Structures are given as structure tokens and as C-alpha cells.
Amino acid sequence: MRFYLETLADPEHFAPLERWRLDAAKNPHLAAIPHGPIDCGDLPPRWHAASRGPWTVVAPVGHEFAPQGWKAHLAPELSDVPEVVTRTARWCFERGLAFKYLARHEYAWALNGKYAPRESSGKVVVVYPDADTDPGEFLRALYEVFGGFRGPRILGDYRLGESIVHTRYGAFTARYGRDAEGEPVLALTDASGRSIPDPRGMRPHTPGFATRPAVIDELAAAPSGPDRPVYRVLSALHMSNTGGVYRATHLETGDEVVLKEARHATGRDAGLRTATDRLRAQRDIMRRLAPTGAVPEVLDHFTQGDSDFLAYRFAPGSTLQEWAAAHNPALIQGHPDRPVSVDAARRFSDSVTRYIGQLSRVVAAAHGAGVVLVDLHPANVIVGPDDSLRLIDLEAATDIGDASATFVGAQGFGRPGVSGPAADEFGIAAVELYLYVPMLPMTFYIPEGLAALVDFAADTFHRNTRWRSGMRKRLGLSETAPGSGVRVGGPNSLRDALERHIDVLTESLGSRIDFEDRYPIPCSPTGFGEFARFGISHGAAGAVWALSRVDRVPERVSTDYRIWLEKNLDRFGALGNGLLDGWAGNIVVSAELGDHDLAARLLDRLVASADLAASPTGVRGGLAGQLLLALWCRTHANLPVTPEWLAAAADEVERRVRDLLRRDDPPPTGLLNGLSGAALALTRAHRVLADRRYLDTARAALDAELATYVEHRAEQRLLFHWDRRIRMLSYLDRGNAGLLVAAAEMDGAWHPGEDTLRALQRAACSRVGVQPGLYIGLAGGLAANAVLRRRTDWLDADYLDRCNEWIAASIMAFSGRGASGFHTPGQLSARASADFATGSAGVLAALAFWTGRGTSWLPGICREVRS
């Protein structure tokens, strides 16, 4: 699960790991996890300790870290953490070396968990040598102290023998440079003094200018396992910190298999079972269930290197989750201005009922064999070519009488306090609801969300009262539990409900902004990045701008925002200066708040610091966005940008797009990160600079982006952007909504053709999805329809409004009140968000623009419309 670490500290919002304090009294299912502060012992005189994220950094007073070098990482087992930290402290105190360690025991558990970052998980202690320390002697001395300890391997490091001592050449303090695409990344300096990326990968790496210490090779351990290969890996099906799941073939028999990996000493769950413990349990459970025919056949279980592997026969087909995404008529529909047709809903619900009936029989057979599955969700169920179901990924399964099972499964598919067969019964009902409406994670922090989803599914798919009542009962809801109450054309006027929803969003958003916090709004985990927190997409700037569109910025927020910007001005330079994902978007926000002087100073800083040749290309964080911003400043804010700078920026965007179009590999696509955004920037530049090259290249770019779309037949023809993997995308960031916005904003300079336009627009109108937000959620399609309605005469305005009424009803149904206020689900709906890209600020901007309460909705990109 992405962002798992950021869900630990707060049940409602994403939060950095360092804010987590495990409360065993409130979370008894987590009580076995070691928790509380880690203590390194008393500090010697003239030493000090400081908090930095989840770490405690200890160093002599006045200590200056070397810029980079071979630092040591120690990765002990949880039970050894106290001793390893105190030994490290004594060793470093004697030598005057700085070190850091995780501040709390629960952080050590989390950062070696199943969903921890793979490249660095297991790391508990870091020791920094001085600039004049011999790396080999330094590492050998640590090995002498810790060579007898065992723990997980840190994948991106060199490991000394089989010990907990690892090393990697890298920067000792956070420094930033650019990657190959121009995006800001952590960096170090090569022998010539040039800034280069500081890679954190899955394999150890020695920079070309550095010398690997000989002790690494001297202590290298020979890998254990078979003398010769038995399997050939074809592809990776899934990856986590505990290992991969691979599709493979047996070299001798040719049998197609799945290899599931469990890395040693990783992934302890809430019951402290390791990944290898769970893999052995899965092997045994699958063998017990073999007579039921519900699971693939187990073929092998072996050790290779630092991992155990389970081999079982490959089950062809798709997951139940993938099946629903390909068949749900509220997701893929030919008539987005109408209710889902009764026939389409009946066909889909008949299939859902058939699969759920089969799943119920499979689960009953497992219970009959004495097994409870625990972690039942659609990604763990395979639909075979013959429509039969198979269970996969049974690492959470346990004996039916095991009351100690504490595996925490997928969010929304388990019920607190429910275990044993009853947990699986709840899981079956949750799976059924998910197939209709894949928003279950929101029910974790919106108490009324489950009833709202049941009602939404019943209304959308024409399910009868008996189904609604039965689903509520199976999910433990009362008949009177309130649902969403949102109806299109029902007794509650949608427009009245929409006006109330906009008011609630506005009030809630204004109350959540706190500039005393490092992260002033509840945001996506992306917003915790050094540069993203100052941007419109994930920072406070986007929330303030959205409030300005409805003229509801509280005076406190306006004042504090200006003070906050002034305090951080010195941080704003050539890196992270994008329109949406960097600090430059604050030019638009400041101008909209009426602070012309602050906006002018920020614009001067942007023009002076922008590196046109090195910046990324896209709109979100790169040159295309900077060009659009400069053109906006010139036409909307009376902020001067010289024609010379505009021409230089436009020339560079045009050159890059032409280079992308000449490549054999697929170009980046989308309004915010790809060709259509660059095309829009070039078209705007053509209007100001009258250079025909820009317009020609813009049209070629949109033609190339359109070529990435594939046809999907529903009741009518649809076109979806295909990313050449497994997804078809219809989002604002990448996909239909963004392409439609770019075309509409170009005032007729490019048109995809009547039939193609309609096929693109239909596909942008999903009523269900995994999140309601703007960039990669339902609100992006609503915004695209609003732009088409207010900028063009390509499609009937009433038709577009009817499409948006259905999308708006979904957005309202997929939100609600939690313990701390009103919530809009954010990234993957795992937690609520107030940011512009994923949360309430973006939803507010889109809804207000469509209803006429706002004159613009995408800062610096889409022009204002005056009623």
C-alpha cells in the first residue's frame, strides 16, 4: 500500500511518520509492537541531540559534517535495537563521530514493514565518518563491534558479510540538484565539483569518482541456495519491502508459476510475525485448502540468498478488482448525461451477484477446512478464463480458532473488533460493495461513509430495497443509518445541495489552514517534500487560491499567508520553481490577493533564477508551466515579462517537444506533465510572439498525444489514453480530461474531430473511481466539461451540465464529516486531504467554476471567464 507510513500518525489525514505515537490503549491490536522513545544514554559534555524527522541526530557541539562519503547504516532486529543504539553511542562518543538513530521503537518497526521504502528499509542507525577518516578502517571497526548481530539486508547498500553493518556512498546532509529530467533530487558532488543525483536504488552503487573500500569485498558472503537456476523470471507482478511476486517458468518442466518472495528479517506484522513466518504459513494454508480447488497448487518452497520463496502454479485471469474496472457501467459509460441504463446495470449486477455467490462458497469451503482468510479484498481474488474464482496472497490467513491473529488488512475491508469467520463474512460484503463503488477506504474516517456508499450503489445500479437492506445488515449498519441524501432529479434539488456543499467546503478549507505548522494544510504525502510544500498542488498556496476564487479568504489566512511567504523567500531559487509543484505559483496567489508588490518580487526572482536549459519540461514543475505563468502575468496581472525572456522560454519548449516527437519511445503525455500542456503553452506564446513554429509544434504534439488513445466499446464509442501498461487513463493530469482542456483553451487552434471529441468526452465522465480529487479523480472530468461548456460551442451546453450533475452527485456522496470536520478523500482515499491536487481545494475550484461562483479553476493555466 502506497503511503502506508503516512497513515500511521493520524486516522483522518496523512501525516509524517515522526508525528506517530503508538497508543496501545487505543489500539490494542497493535500492542505487541515495541513502542516508546529509544534512548542512546547520557550525552558527554559538549555533545547535543536534535530531532530531524523521525531521527535523533547526535553530534559534538559545533560539529561540521563532511559533505559526503562512505556512511555506515546498521539494520538490527527489533529486539536488538536498544543494545545496538547504546553500543553505537559509546563507540561514537569515544571517537567524536556524529550519528543518528530512529527516535522511537515503533518507527523501527514501521520502517522495516511490508510497505516501507524498499531501498532503505531496515536502517535504524547511521554513523558519519569525519572527512579525514579512512573508510575501510572505519567500516572494519564497526564490523568488529556488530559483526555478530543479524538483521535485514538494506537493498541499496553494500553489506559487510552477514552482519547488520551496511554502507553506501552518499551525501551526509540534504543537498539538492537535478535528475536527468530536470526535477529536484537529493544530490552529491562529483570529482569536478558538479552536482549529480545521489541515487537510492535497489542495488548497491559506487559512483565513478569514488573508490569502494576493500573491506566490502573481503567480507562478502557467498549467496546460499540451489547451485543452478530452477526458474526463469518473466515479470514482476507486485513489489513490496518484503519482496516481489514474480511470474516465472520452471526451466525443466516449462510450467508457469508464481514465485512469492519473503526477505529474511523483514515485514513484521502487528503480531511480530516476519515475512518468512507468513510465507511458511501461507504454504501450509494453501496445502490445507488444496482439496477445495480454491487455491493454486503449491509446487515448491526454498531459500535463495537472503530470501525464502514459495512457488505455486500460475492462475491465469485477472483480479476481481481489474474485472470491475473493465466492466463497471458507472465507470465506463456511453451516455454520461443519463442514469446508468437499467440493462447495463442489470448485466453488471448479475455478474457481481454470481461472483459474490461463488466467493461465498469458496470462503465457506475455507472455513470448513478450518481456515479464516482475514485479508479478503478484490485484488486477492482471481477471475479465471472459465469465470471460476481462485484465492491468492493468503499470507494473512490463519487457523479458524486463532484468536491471536493481528494482521491489519486492506483499509475498508475489515471491521474493528471483528475476527474469525465473521471477519470474512464482512469482507465478502465489502468486496461486493467495492465492485460497485471502489471508495471503501474513506469509510475508515467518515463514519457515515459506508451507508452513503450502499445508498449510492443502490441508486446508481437500480438495486432494490431488499438489496439495500441486506447490504446494510451484512456490513453491520442499521436501517436508519444516514446515507448521502444526494439525488440527481430527486426530491432534494441537486443545485441546492451543490450550493450547500460548496459552502461547507469553503468553510472547512478556511478553518484548516495553519501557517504555524510546517505543513499548513492536510495534504497528500507528496506535499511533505521540501519543494512541494510551497506549491499550489500540495501546499497552502493552492488552498488560499481556491478560496480566493469564491472570494472567501479569511483575513487571518490572507495575513498569515503573506507573512509565511516573506519568511520563506530565501528558500525560493532555481530548484522547485514550478507553477503548480513549486514556489512560483505563489506569484498567481499573491496577485489574486491584491499584493502586487509581493507578486512582482516573486516574478523577478523567477525570471532571474530560472534555468531554461535545465528545467523540467512539463506544466506542473517545469518550463511549460513557467511560460504559461509568465504569459498569465503579462495578460492578467499587469506584471511585465520581457518579450526576450518569453521567446527564449518558448523556443526551449518548442525544441524539447520536437525532440520528444522524434524519439522512438512513447513521449510523456498529459496536460500537467506532457505534450498537451506543452502544446497549450506554445499556442499561448504564438498569440503573443506571432511565431508560427510554436503553433505548428503544438498541433503536432496534440496529434501525437491523441495517437496514444485506444478505443473501448460501451453503449457508445469511447477513447481512453493507454499508458502502455495495464491502465487506461481519463484524468486531468494524464488522459482525456487534460487533453480536452488543452484543446478547449486553444480557441480552435486544434480540434480532434467531431466523433473523436465525443468519444474523448464520454470517457472523461466517470461517476465512480478511487478518489474524487482534481488531478487524478472525478473532479477533473467535471472541470473538463465545464471548460468545454464555457470556452467552446463544440458540445451542447445542457448536455455538458447534465453530465456534470451526475459527476457532482458522486463527488458529494464520496465525502462527509469525520471526527475533526468535513472531509474530502485524498490520495487513493486512504486519508482525507485539503490540497489542490487531491483534496477539497481542487474540488472546490472545479465545482465553483462550473456553477459560476468562480471565474477560473486552474491557476495560471486556464483563463478567467466573466459571466
TrEMBL record:
Residues 231-522 form the Protein kinase domain. It holds the Pfam family RamC_N. One of its GO terms (molecular function) is protein kinase activity. SMART domains: LANC_like, S_TKc. PROSITE patterns: PROTEIN_KINASE_DOM. GO terms for biological process: carbohydrate metabolic process; peptide modification. InterPro entries: 6hp_glycosidase-like_sf, Kinase-like_dom_sf, LANC-like, Prot_kinase_dom, RamC_N. It comes from the Bacteria. This is Protein kinase domain-containing protein.
